[in-house]
Amino acid sequence: LSINVPDDLQEVRMPKIILQPLVENAMLHGILETEREYGTIVITGRREAGRVIISICDDGQGMDADTVTHLVEKPTAGYGVRNIDGRLKILYGDSFGLRVESTPGKGTTVDVVLPG
C-alpha cells in the first residue's frame, strides 16, 4: 500500500466509509483474484479543475469494459460501488461521484470526485 496525498488535501472532508470499501474491493476483487495473489494498491490525491480527486489504483486482474460500464448501473452488481456513487451524487450533485477505469490483466483505478 502506498499513499501519496498532498498536505493541502489532508483536511478535505468527505462522507465516512467512502475509501474503505474501494480499497477492500481492490484487494479482494483485484489483487487476490490474480494468479500471484499479491500486488500494490496506490492511493493518490490531487486537485483538478476545481475538484478534489482521490484515486485508488491496483495492479490486480482488472475488468473488461462491459463490467466497468455496469458496475455502477446494474442492480445486481457492484452494490458497494453503486452505493458510494449514489451517496456522493446526492450530497454534491451529478457531476461528482465515482469514475472507474480498468484494463484486464493490468488493474483498476477508481477516482472519487469531490467538490474542492
Concise structural overview:
Helices cover 31% and strands 30% of the residues. The chain is α+β, with helices and mostly antiparallel strands.
Describe this structure in words.
Helices cover 31% and strands 30% of the residues. It is built from three helices and five strands, in the order βαββααββ. The chain has helices at residues 19-31, 65-73, 79-92, and strands at 2-4, 41-48, 51-58, 97-103, 107-115. It has a five-stranded mixed sheet. The longest helix is centred in the last third of the chain and has 14 residues, at 79-92. The protein starts with a strand and ends with a strand.
Multimer state: single chain
Number of DSSP E strands: 5
As a percent range, the share of strand residues is 25-35%
Structural class: alpha+beta
**Alpha carbon gyration radius:** 14 Å
Q: Main sheet, how many strands, which sense, barrel?
A: 5 strands, mixed
Question: What are the key terms here?
Answer:
5 strands; alpha+beta; 116 residues; 31% helix; 3 helices
Write the layout of secondary structure elements.
Blueprint: E1 2-4, H1 19-31, E2 41-48, E3 51-58, H2 65-73, H3 79-92, E4 97-103, E5 107-115
Parallel strand pairs: 1-2
Antiparallel strand pairs: 2-3, 3-5, 4-5
